[in-house]
Amino acid sequence: MTERASRRSTSTVDALTSDGLMGADLTLLRQYEPVVRYTRGELFLPTDVSAYVAQCSLWTGVHGGQQTQLGRPGELTLERLSTEGVAYRDRPLFLRFVQNPLSRKEYLRWRRMPRERLRATGRFTTTGVFGRLIDAALRASLLLRGKVPAGVAAAAETTYREQLDAGHFTYYGRVVRDGGYVCLQYWFFYAMNDWRSTFGGINDHEADWEMVTIYLAERDEEPARPVWVAFSSHDYHGDDLRRRWDDPDLQREGDRPVVFAGAGSHSGAFIAGDYVVTVDPPQLQPVMRFVRKLQRLVAPWRHYTGSTPGLGIPFVDYARGDGVAIGPGCEHEWTPSLIDDETPWIRDYRGLWGLDTRDRFGGERAPSGPRYERDGSVRVSWSNPLGWAGLLKIPPTDRDLAQALEERVAALDNELSGLAATIEADRKELRGLRAQARSLSAHDYARALAESRLAEVAQREAALNRTMAARTQLAEERRAHLATLSQPIPSEPPQAHIRRPHNPHLQEQERRTRFLRLWAALSTPLVLGSIIVVLLASPLAWVTTIIVLTFAFAGVEAIARRRLLSFAASVLLAAAAIALIVVLILLFLKHWRTAISVLVGAAALALLFGNLEELRRD
């Protein structure tokens, strides 16, 4: 090699290709380089980590204790970062990109600078009142949590634009061969995640690492071909992260997947559009399913906008792809840099790549590097690329699937052969026990022993029946596998593996109006204000006050979304159902004999009609 392994991260492409294996890896990475399309108004694009580190200070400290500066801006290099990572491996480390946020005057001057700007969606209109209340709670929590100070994003953009090579776009490529796959990982580093401060999202944090992985299927004496692709995307994981290479939702330019990066968040999306953040905790899933069923029961005529699981929160991830595009054939192209487990700054530095705000929720803390989580443990996406995307269970090709089925059929043959011998021996023993019990029962002095034999016969017979049922099940499984192998194995639908679809929010579903935007902005403060009304009301009026306010808010929401008729019909149906229940209860309390007679009569009529229908069929 022309350079030592400790210099891999900063070596040139020519130096990398001088090594045979790394040259082959680089060729594969360049062959499938993704095209990343950003949203108009994006401030931070992928950059070189060495230039970023040179602008940072390095800090250490104990959790909750005093922080000590280890390096000032201009003193740090990737080599020193690696050295300090080894020296302070047992203490938390973090970089700080912005040393001093902009003052208010500087920030206002920065805001007035000419630049492309996003035309944002009215985010409050994307969810209902409850989702907007969650938004208010999350924003209020920033007062108690550690957060990125105001002005940091503006200062970071200024430093990024003036000090870093903003026209030079780097990805850090890694190739992993495992389980019949070749995993091409493309790591992108951003100086800042400014989703909250610039685009009204959930969080800000210094530094941001995002990743695209392309999975190639290895074949004997044949070139590897792409079969899957996965993008890092917020809280999605496993099967939901990946798309098959022939998925119609996956846009490609030749052999290069197209990634639509979220504005500020840089999260990857397969389809261009605006994505509303949803939460779907397992504890709430049964409740949400019940609510949806109740909605369809009460208002079957209502138009339900999509079937995305979870609860919507009015934070929008803008992945429109109408801004800068980077990749082969675009105005800007990539500069690759190879990394692996032995790259020193990857291996040795476990600290954060930006400001440690000590946010309890983690959203405002900077991330660690490609290899590590914030707690210093190795990332699943680094140590287990197949498991990260749910591919451990998926063979690379249909040929591997057929081979697995053939191996299973062979194992079933052996198991069935063994079961046949076991069944024959157990049946012979069972018949012998039954003969013994019959002989013993003919003699009075052996009755107790005969009963013991009969009990043993019953147990053995039940066990033999279970064994024979298992043999039948295995034989049926074998027959099914042979039927599958008798013809070409059909492919599954491209999205059969997806449990939680990641689709953009359709604006036409909401039919936005100015009144809806106004109501969306006012509804949350009004809900909080209504709590005051309830508290000031007399205790006897609490129930009626809450009911009236609930119907009032729901009615205005329906008017704002142009669903007044649907809302009115739902209210009338609910009122009729409640009235019917009340009448039945009163009838049962005052005339319980009549009520029971009516119920029994109705049951008798239903049974009569059912029996007559059976007679008609006969």
Walk me through this protein's architecture.
The protein is α+β, with helices and mostly antiparallel strands and 618 residues long. 45% of the residues lie in helices and 16% in strands. The protein has 3 domains: 5-393, no CATH class; 399-485; 510-608, no CATH class. The strands form 4 sheets. Strands 9-8-7-6-5-16 form a 6-stranded mixed beta sheet. Strands 1, 10, 11, 12 and 15 form a 5-stranded mixed beta sheet that branches. A 3-stranded antiparallel beta sheet has the order 3-2-4, with helices on one face. Helix 17 (542-560) runs antiparallel to helix 18 (564-590). The longest helix is centred in the C-terminal third of the chain and has 44 residues, at 398-441. Mean pLDDT is 85; it is low at 1-18 and 301-307.
Record keyword descriptors for this entry.
single chain, 618 residues, alpha+beta, 3 domains, 19 helices
Number of helices: 19
- Main sheet properties: 6 strands, mixed
Order of adjacent strands in the largest pleated sheet: 9-8-7-6-5-16
What is the strand content? 15-25%
| Strand segment tally | 16
- How many angstroms separate the termini? 88 Å
The mean pLDDT is 85
